[in-house]
């Protein structure tokens, strides 16, 4: 028996409107049960891609398959398999929470008999029991966001697409949403876009960074760090002769490069300086460096290995993509 | 059309909790009540040639031009503005179902409001004890005209609402469209310049779309298939264009 198709498969997706290319040749795939984070600066094409995945927007070219079904030609079947929380989570202002969930459940073809218990269940999961009879327009942002999430998981679809689910929530509510999403792991495929990077790092198995309509990096947060920075780095505070310092460092690893950190100021050999050491080696070199520097007569005050946050990865990846785009653009001809 | 009943009952509910509905209903019933009182006064003063039911429907255009926009302006424009149309269309419903449900709900309310004015005649008959006040022929013809022409009027309102994301623009659009159709047709009906050679086909079209003429025919008990066809085809066209408009705007969202 052949393996089941991936939950989401996007191949060479392009979307242009009005002369602007919002999504430019994106390809990726998401395995079943995986939680994938979608990162990108504003206007990168995240929401457009998500809308195409839901079948709401047609693509200009390329193909999108959801659970093996082509979105373009079988949108109805695809829509039965997704739960979608759009950006800004639009909700009808003048309905009660339970009425809204009932209405959506009926539209999503949950049978009447199952719908009542299922609504109770999602209200419990999303901690909405207390507000089930309240009018949505009177709810706070946090509750509204949870109503949107409850609606997305209501029909237990195999794929859930959430566009910035934690926007506007307080840290406590973010924690609830994070646990909620984590509880879906393995059962449902989830794709989330967010600006809150630590959020993505904690929740997601894999991250896709897109910029200017292109995928600029993808992989687990650890893989991305390796791919983007390609090296380990250490920050060192040391005092001593620069020549002795360089010689000592070369004995530890010939590929070790030292450079002053941004906040470093010019100082004499007796003063402490902050240096950033970079190397292609992934193993731990801290002990070796301290020992070598001590042997060379340098005084070490502090040493620490730097762990680039997902934020650094994101900034580096998007910056890299901008550089690529600029390099590819034709140079403007000088005006005489 | 599996989801049509769910959508229709939802739309009816939403209309019933919307203040605009009650404004429209109050204005309409107040206005029609006033018209009815004037008719009773008129007929109480001196005998008239025409049946009161015929006179009653003569001013139908005024409440139509106000009430239909109030009932329909919100339906698609507001959903698009709030973004709930996007969530709605990412469930397994089709645009056709959504548009038809909105049309169905607005039309049901429109027809109910008009039907409730039948009460005026029943009250009059009850207290006057005179059967002639309930002149069933013209009354039936008048209500039939309202029911059939209402299909087109409400469909035009839905079309206007599908064209914009602003409720007020939709309201003004549908008011203008209805006034143009009803009053413009009437104004052109008597224009002698339409008789000239080249414009003669236009004359035929204007005669065909002469809503006041249709009303008089219905009140006389003449139910012309051409009139029915005019309203049926107009309604179908307006609804098809509404569906296309929603889908086209989705493409350029």
Question: What would the CATH topology of the largest domain in chain A be?
Answer: Rossmann fold
Q: Compute the average pLDDT of chain B.
A: 88
- Beta percentage of chain B is under 5%
Strand order of the largest sheet of chain A: 6-7-8-3-9-10
DSSP helix count of chain B?
A: 13
Number of domains of chain A: 2
Computed Rg of chain A: 25 Å
Count, helices of chain A: 11
Report the strand count of chain B: 0
Number of E-type strands of chain A: 14
Overall outline of chain A: elongated
- Most extensive protein-chain contact, per-chain counts: A-B, 28 and 24 residues
- State the domain count of chain B: 1
Short description:
Chain A is an alpha/beta fold. Chain A has helices at 46-54, 75-79, 97-107, 112-125, 141-153, 171-183, 197-203, 221-229, 242-252, 286-295, 310-328; strands at 8-17, 20-30, 35-39, 61-66, 69-70, 82-85, 159-163, 189-193, 206-211, 214-219, 232-239, 257-260, 273-279, 299-306.
Topology at a glance:
The complex is a heterodimer of chains A (336) and B (253).
Chain A (H helix, E strand, L loop, with lengths): L7 E10 L2 E11 L4 E5 L6 H9 L6 E6 L2 E2 L4 H5 L2 E4 L11 H11 L4 H14 L15 H13 L5 E5 L7 H13 L5 E5 L3 H7 L2 E6 L2 E6 L1 H9 L2 E8 L2 H11 L4 E4 L12 E7 L6 H10 L3 E8 L3 H19 L8
Parallel strand pairs in A: 3-8, 3-9, 6-7, 7-8
Antiparallel strand pairs in A: 1-2, 1-4, 4-5, 9-10, 11-13, 11-14, 12-13
Helix pairs in contact in A: 3-4, 8-11, 9-10
Chain B lengths: L3 H13 L2 H27 L6 H5 L4 H12 L4 H6 L1 H6 L5 H22 L1 H11 L7 H28 L3 H23 L10 H9 L2 H9 L5 H27 L2
Key words describing this protein structure:
heterodimer, A: about 325 residues, alpha/beta, Alpha-Beta Plaits, 2 domains, six-stranded mixed sheet, four-stranded antiparallel sheet, 11 helices, elongated, B: about 250 residues, mainly alpha, globular
